[in-house]
Design the sequence.
């Protein structure tokens, strides 16, 4: 049996389907995946997919041009069927499984979508049973939902899958030696996710408290280039903080390409003693690892994401609007820091307590 699985979206969205691919492989099937170019970061060397078909700009334009009266997801499926149907015996589309209660279109994102031609944000308007008004938030675990949507029985393992390659471990070991991280403890902070939507304003307070308590601790900060501003404010001033968000380009970081950068960062998290970050690609990629993790939850609930992650504690925002399931760009700002309200409401205290407990303990190997 040859099965083609369709899953576009961001890197974290692709991690959600790794249990599906593992189950299909375990059943002896030949598995192909249709994903966007950054999907190579997830599937490179994983052994999960026998073939990876990249969704191109031409495919995007074709969907926009030929969609007609079809829904957005149906048009994607039709395009994949047209290109690959002769090769595969069956096609499983997992693109519209969780989006109905995860993405939420806004005026700004709709404009961006139209400018791109495909208007991907309209998928929610096309398919959401609730429309644009208030609707119930669903607490389903995304990994379990993916398995169910793929028609895979309840005995399948819902844990995420990520394989760190030997050369990536060698890079992490070399990085540790070069930065004096050989003997002490290492914490990795992911400063943001999805742009400002998941940027936490209290990183300096957390870093200062942890560095004061653990004299052998060093912190590595990850993030997008916009997070350089955060690093300039505090990380660059402390020799025990190694800022990597300011070295995000391929040339500056010595990476082969953008997805190679992510894979190396995940290898570094595997070698660390603590990871702290919001709902982001690095958190999901590291979900399969024994490294203790503290996840800052705002848009989603811990049950949606963290239930099957190893050694992971979720800190849910106490904001009345969280969880909302709305990935928007115009959220209400907090009065104290100017950050998104739900992120501002996650105070440093609970995050510090969970981080201290993780650093004091050892990986339990679950």
Sequence:
């Amino acid at each position: 049996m040859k099965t083609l699985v369709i899953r576009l979206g961001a890197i974290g969205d692709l991690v959600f389907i790794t249990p599906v691919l593992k189950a299909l492989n375990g059943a002896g099937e030949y598995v192909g995946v249709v994903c966007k170019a950054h999907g190579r970061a997830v599937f490179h060397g994983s052994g999960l997919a026998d073939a990876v078909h990249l969704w191109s700009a031409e495919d995007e334009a074709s969907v926009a041009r030929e969609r007609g009266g079809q829904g957005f997801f149906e048009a994607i499926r039709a395009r994949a069927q047209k290109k690959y149907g002769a090769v595969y015996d069956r096609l499983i589309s997992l693109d519209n499984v969780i989006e109905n209660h995860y993405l939420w279109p806004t005026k700004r994102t709709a404009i961006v979508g139209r400018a791109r031609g495909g208007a991907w944000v309209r998928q929610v308007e096309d398919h959401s049973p609730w429309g644009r008004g208030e609707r119930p938030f669903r607490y389903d675990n995304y990994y379990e939902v993916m398995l169910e949507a793929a028609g895979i029985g309840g005995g399948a393992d819902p844990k995420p899958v990520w394989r760190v390659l030997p050369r990536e471990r060698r890079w992490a070991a070399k990085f540790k030696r070069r930065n004096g991280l050989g003997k002490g403890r290492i914490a990795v902070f992911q400063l943001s996710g999805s742009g400002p939507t998941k940027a936490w304003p209290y990183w300096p307070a957390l870093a200062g408290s942890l560095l004061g308590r653990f004299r052998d601790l060093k912190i590595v900060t990850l993030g997008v280039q916009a997070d350089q501003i955060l690093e300039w404010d505090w990380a660059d001033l402390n020799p025990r903080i190694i800022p990597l968000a300011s070295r995000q380009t391929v040339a500056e970081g010595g990476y082969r390409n953008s997805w190679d950068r992510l894979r190396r960062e995940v290898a570094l998290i595997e070698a660390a003693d603590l990871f702290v970050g919001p709902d982001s690609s690095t958190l999901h990629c590291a979900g399969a690892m024994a490294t203790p993790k503290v996840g800052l939850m705002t848009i989603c609930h811990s049950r949606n994401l963290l239930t099957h992650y190893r050694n992971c504690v979720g800190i849910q925002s106490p904001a009345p609007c969280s969880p909302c399931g709305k990935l928007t760009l115009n959220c209400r700002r907090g009065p104290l820091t100017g950050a998104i309200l739900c992120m501002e409401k996650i105070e440093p205290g609970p995050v510090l307590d969970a981080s201290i407990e993780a650093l004091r303990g050892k990986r339990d190997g679950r």
Remarks:
- The CA atoms of residues 299 and 324 lie 5 Å apart.
- Strands lie at 2-6, 30-35, 51-54, 90-93, 185-190, 217-222, 241-243, 274-278, 293-297, 312-316.
- The longest strand covers residues 30-35.
